UniProtKB/TrEMBL annotation:
Protein name: AAA+ ATPase domain-containing protein
Top-level lineage group: Eukaryota
Annotated CDD domains: RecA-like_BCS1
Domain AAA+ ATPase: 236-388
Organism listed in the record: Gossypium raimondii (Peruvian cotton)
Biological process according to GO: response to stress
Family: Belongs to the AAA ATPase family. BCS1 subfamily.
Amino acid sequence: MREYWNSFASLLGVLAFCQSLLQLIFPPQLRFLCLKFFNRIFHLFSSYCYFDITEIDGVNTNELYNAVQLYLSSFVSINGSRLSLTRALNSSAITFGLSNNDCIVDTFSGVTVLWEHVVIQRQSQTFSWRPLPEEKRGFTLRIKKKNKSLILDSYLDYIMERSNEIRRKNQDRLLYTNSRGGSLDSRGHPWESVPFKHPSTFDTLAMHPQKKQEIMDDLEDFANGQSFYQKTGRAWKRGYLLYGPPGTGKSSMIAAMANYLSYDIYDLELTEVHNNSELRTLLMKTSSKSIIVIEDIDCSVNLTNRKKNNKRNYCDPEVRCGSGSACGGEDGGNSITLSGLLNFTDGLWSCCGSERIFVFTTNHIEKLDPALLRSGRMDMHIYMSYCSYPALKILLKNYLGYEESDLDYHVLKELSDVVDKAEMTPADISEVLIKNRNYKQKAVTELLEAMKTRADRNFKCGSLRDKISDEEEQEKRALETPNEGSEFEEPCKEGENKEKKKS
Ligand SMILES: Nc1ncnc2c1ncn2[C@@H]1O[C@H](COP(=O)(O)OP(=O)(O)OP(=O)(O)O)[C@@H](O)[C@H]1O
Ligand SMILES: [Mg+2]
């Protein structure tokens, strides 16, 4: 045994001597070239080839890296021996991942591949125009050279598909916001995200069941319509305009849509967008299977029609000063224009990515520019109305567990008579029901009382309004030089005006 150790020690000595000799003879550059050369030779004769998938590709986030990470996380918990566990802020799901510099084997169509998660420290002196993560992360895929075509043709596509599926099914969907005002994070993203957990669904949404079904069918058709959109040459996107008084469920409807289709939501805050090109960047960074929302579009920014904009926009950075210029305009330096927004929803840029839904909401549809409303731009205009009787029944069921048959016939009759006249929003009604949800009878009685009071008030206000506007009308007509002949037409005009007011 001692002899064996002696010869091993002398061998090490010889090796150390050879190494120092080599270092003496070969300068470092030459050594590096030699190593590279031997590496090449090794790869030439090796039966394997390698693919590096880095987390950041130049300056952009590499989607394939995220997809691989997600894909591996689906089976790494069973096969891996050393795992990294992560849980995003506010998320309920724990994600398994491959530990740093660890490997895992996968099989696809009978072919075995090896994945290695490579993590190295980033050199601090590396120059970058934005902060980069401290570690360089990537996956290395090792496959047999003879299987290269199979892997490149189908395996990577399969990974992308699977990762999308996994993300939709297992992971929390995300609610994105651009509240950082255009600045990018270390991975080059202008959006910030939190897990999306809104409980609103089409079941909890109080609206006419037929209208609800129409919307659900439309969403379903859209989600399954890839080949239709392809065949007809249309971008795979759809626009919904939700309008109606506050508290009628526009935001709840968006949440229900996202939950129904399992889509992410991008809540676009227009006041945080400085110009049209920033808007385009935001659009480019949205993923497919998502809903892009602009709430209260009438009050977000001063969007006037394109003609007016053209006149006014001598100070539009994109027209004159070049993108990013800081020349202020009427709207205090915010140079996002209606045409920019229209391009965002409808132009060439709107179809980067696919399967996306645009939803705009407003309380005042009459304030919107007709260009935004023309058909093809917002495919469906959905009026979210005051609570109707069918919607009221849904609220009674959801909040109190009351079916129609559980309520007294007379109470039902009273409710159905007064609900339209009361003009109460589902938000108003749900407030009354929540307050008394432990005393169901009391809840119904109080609701009926509240509705009657509102209906009474509306009636009085309505007749007062009619009276005032009739007087105003008469005064106006008196000032507009009345002539004898016009008296003949008077009753008819008045009738018309009343009709208009009603509508
Ligand atoms: N149609 C509805 N069905 C069920 N609940 C509703 C409905 N409308 C409103 N609500 C309730 O009222 C609350 C406010 O509704 P929501 O925020 O969706 O209204 P909104 O129309 O978006 O209002 P705003 O125009 O002020 O943004 C919600 O939390 C929800 O509980
Ligand atoms: Mg809302």
